[in-house]
Every structure is written in structure tokens, then in C-alpha cells.
Amino acid sequence: MASFPAVPPADAYSAPSVDQQGRSAVSWGAILAGAAATAALSLILLVLGTGLGLTSLSPYGGSSASAMALGFSAIVWVMVTQALASGMGGYLAGRLRTRWLSVHSDEVYFRDTAHGFLAWAIASLVTAALLTSAIGSIVGGAVKAGATVAGGAATSAVAAAATGDKAEGNGPTAYFIDSMFRRPQAATGAIPMASTAAVPTAEVTRILMQAGIDKPLAAEDQRYLGQLVAERTGLAQDDAEKRVSDTVAAMQAKARELEAAARDAAEKARKAGIGATLWLFVSLLLGAFSASLAATWGGRERDA
Fold it and tell me: CB–CB of 23/97 below 8 Å?
């Protein structure tokens, strides 16, 4: 006779899980709720950190925190922001997700971790989109204000005065041109042979720009400027040409000094940018880890 398989005992059956019922293993409602909480808390902490950072700056010398202290504080605050915001969002994603019945504990652990990671990923994308628009304007304005204060209002004023309005002959070479046409004072007063004609500032500026920062003036330009200086100051031609060459040398030395300072500032900005991107990468990794771990905690409490 044909034998039939034995009927398993009743306790061998388990209640059908949501997966067996054809439902998704991903609770998108919980994930979106966790992402919204992460993005909102990140915004709050970012605004708070910006305000606390501005309180450490002052236009008065010696009253502001050092650049190293500000940079270290910013790094720590970004890490704390990522850990707290991502942890809160991941916990909510795990706590609010649908309960899975008859699912192995290892599978539950994986799904909770995935829910926390997805909540962090969506929140990161939303935050990045916001940082490029309204929040970027707020934070960017605050950073610019802080940089101006840290640099000193006096330094900004001096730089503006040195640059001036080039269209009106008040550019960076105006001081050197004025010194070149400055009339010497004799023992009995100004030299009577000096001309009172106006200095052709625009023309002189164009001639001086031909020398750049490391080339001497052409011989004809040297003689021509010497004639202009001699006519308006009463100096001899040789003395006038010497004054022109001394002025050109001083102007080139100043230009080289400014160029070196600009390169140094660019190098510091490059290194600061590298450090900022690397620390931002680390903080994002910390946020992903915090969200995933907190989601497992929330899921366990949900199941309990």
C-alpha cells in the first residue's frame, strides 16, 4: 500500500509573516519619518553651531578665538551634529517600522540596520539640497561675516583704501606715481622751475604696468618718464630718471610681496579645503553608523 507523509504537529506551523502575505519588507513611512527628523535636527544644530561660533569672534584684537580653535570646534560640532541627528532619525525609523512576524532574528537585525541607513541617506540628500539654497545663503553670510571680523575691520579698510577706484586714478599704483612726481623742497622753498601742469596719471600708469613685477622699464619709457618728472619737479634729467627707476623698483617689490601673500593665502585655503572635505567625509560615515545602530535599538524596543 502507498504510504502518505506524516502530518507535522500543529506547533510546527508559525503565524504568517508580512513577507509571506506579499508585503514589502521596507517600512517607507518609518524611513521617511526618521529622515525628516534627521534633517530637521541637523538644521537646528547647524544654526545653533553657527550662532555659537559667531559669539567667539570679535572685531577687537585679542578678543577672538584663534583660527585653530575655531576649526577644531567646527569639526567637533559637525561630528556631534551628525551623531545626534542621525541617531535620532535612525531610532525613529527602527521604532516606527512595521513589526515582522516569524522572521529570523538575524534578518530583523539586517532590516533594522537597513532602515536606519536609508533614513540617513534620504536625510543627507535633503540636507544637501537645502544647503545649496536657503540654508547655504544663511550659513554663507554668517561665515563671510565671521571672516571679516576675524580678519579685522582695520585690515579691510586699509585694503579698500589701497585698491581704490582705478577709474579715477586711485588704483594701487597711485601712491608710487604721487611719490615719483613729488616736488623736492629746497632750502628757500619749492624749486621755481617746476611745472604746474597736471600729471598724466593714466598714461604713466600704463607705462609702469609694462614693467610687470620683474622687468625693467624700456629705455625710451625711462627717458620719457624722466622728462615728465624733471618738468614737474625741477630735478635734473639724471636725477629724475633715477627717481623713476627707484619708484619702479619699489612698486615691483610691493607687487612681489602681494603676490607672495596671495599665494600663501591660496595654499592655506587649499589645505583648509582638503581638511574640511576629509572631516566631512568622516562625519558622514559617523552619521551612517549612528543611524544604523540606533535603528537596531529602536527596532528591538518596538518588538519588545
Answer: no
Residue in the block written with cell 574640511: 276
Cα angle at 128 between 124 and 130, to 5 degrees?
120
CB atoms inside a 10 Å sphere around CB 227: 14
Distance (Å) of CA 91 to CA 42, 45, 96, 117, 128: 15, 18, 8, 11, 21
105 contacts 90 by C-beta, under 8 angstroms: no
pTM above 0.70, yes or no: no
Strand partners, 217: none
Q: pLDDT tens digits for 190-247?
A: 455 556 667 788 888 888 888 777 788 888 888 888 888 888 888 888 888 888 888 8
Q: For residue 157, which amino acid is it?
A: A
Q: Using the structure block, give the residue that is written with the C-alpha cell 600663501.
A: 264
* Amino acid at residue number 200: P
